[in-house]
Amino acid sequence: MTATSTDLSAPDLSAVEAKLHVPAGNSRWEAFSGRYRDLLDAPLDAAGVPAWLADWNAVSSALIDTASRLSTHADLHTDRPDVQERYQTFVAQVLPEAERAEQALKEKLLAVPDYVPAPEFALNFRRMRDAAALYREANVTLGVTHEAQKNRYSVATGNQKVTLNGQTLTIPQAKQRLDSPDRAAREAAWRALSESNRGVAAELDGVMLDLIGTRWQLARNADLPTFRDYQWRVLDRVDYSPADCHAFHEAVRDEAVPLTARIVQGIAAQLGLDSVRPWDYNRNSLLDPQGRAPLTPFRTGAELETLAETAFASLDADLAARFRQMRAGGLLDLESRPGKMTHAYCQYFPTHNEPFVLMNVVGSAEDVRVLFHEVGHAFHGFYSGDAQPLVWNRWSPIEFVEIPSMAMEFLTLDHLGHVFTPEELDRYREKQLQGVVAFLPWAAQMDAFQHWLYAEAPETVMVADLDAKWLELDRTFHPFVNWEGLDETVRAKGWQYYHVFQAPFYYIEYAMCYLAATGIWRAAQADPAGALDRYRASLRLGSTVSVPELYRAAGVEFRFDRAYIRGLMAFIETQLPR
């Protein structure tokens, strides 16, 4: 059932463009200012809070909706100055005014005498109180600078090209060549990617130094000693501490790194490789131990959509209906093409409770997994939006938000008989399990780097310091990759990664959620219907309960300690072929 070639022809994007269209007048502050002013001027007592909150919810949803559409449109057109300028104008002129207005509304709500929030709003009421205390006017203006600096990363990497064997490829297209069973082809692709990355490295160095300065200033403005302290409060991390994260780094080093090494070195031995070189290791898709060509289960984005819809129909009728809604509504843009941001994500438009998935597919089995991942996020948006009228109560805290996506990678495993032959499905399943193990060292390295950068390194840290720290961590968490004789300046720039620029400190959550998703899959082996019911029930809770309660609703524990990691690594090892 494997497709024989990759032919990702350009699709008709008119529906996507229509979905992302924002009329000019709707992206100006005047479109929102009157509604905010009415809320601020309205008399408010405890009895009137629910109706007032509904009005606030409506204008906040409209603002988020507009920002999300403009941001996504900019990511689809990194090579169009007019699109970039429109989004940056919105960020610079509208969002600061909205942030000030939102702060004023929080203060108005917090000052209402005798108001006791309803149980489903109590958690977000507490979050509003904490956010209001963290607010600083100076950070509103500085936030515009911060967003503009982050956007420089998107533009630089979105316009990146790779030259390989006389062809010009996008980054995702070039990365696909790393799955080749031909070692020489993998090495050529790796070297071409490395050369492309060198071409933007100096620019990204400058962006990072600017971001570091801005982030330290954000912390100082909020009277906090480090950016880690500041971001800890921004992210509302109340259920664990930096010390817990450091313990996680050590547990991964001692429990997951050795298992990853055994898996990778075992594959290398079967392939007759003398050692594992950088082009022999792709954490997202380990080499096939029999040297078989990578699975290519589809050719076009439309084919990928169809195979996914069939899988969802086999899993659950309502999930399939939600996905059909996305297909019909211009809520999917899957193909890789020049001028498109190279990452994959799920965006959300709250006014109509619509998620939007952006990807860069190249026809690989990894694309299948990533689509299920991103659509799992979309299901989270759908279900929490259905159940929770208030936008603040939708989605979930970031410590849970990757569970709907990662669990969907596992829950679809038994519903892919139309995509893969039994032998191919075994390969796909094995890669899924290997991917969990291989991901943990990367996640620990990413998190450890940011703890060092924003709590231990001086504010005056230099690029050479960043490179040196990354090398140190890479040798700790990926000691099985042999870089002998290679230019390690390439290795040292591994920190030039999306989340370090765009979402500081948002990475350990992927590891937490992968551990939980593995637990959900383990439960689904014994009770698939019950696991799916718990999955949906936890999504409907949105952000109305704490992180530990959300995990319990999904049927797992909120844990990422050494004993828990050791137990899950042992379970995964029993599921891998001997």
From TrEMBL:
Listed A to Z, the keywords are:
Hydrolase, Metal-binding, Metalloprotease, Protease, Zinc
Cofactors that this protein relies on? Zn(2+)
**What CDD domains does UniProt report for this protein, alphabetically?**
M3B_PepF (cd09606)
In this record, what's one Pfam family?
Peptidase_M3
- Note on how the cofactor is bound: Binds 1 zinc ion.
Enumerate the spans annotated as Peptidase M3A/M3B catalytic domain: 179-568
* InterPro entries, A to Z: Pept_M3A_M3B, Pept_M3A_M3B_dom
Protein family: Belongs to the peptidase M3 family.
Q: Specify the protein name.
A: M3 family oligoendopeptidase
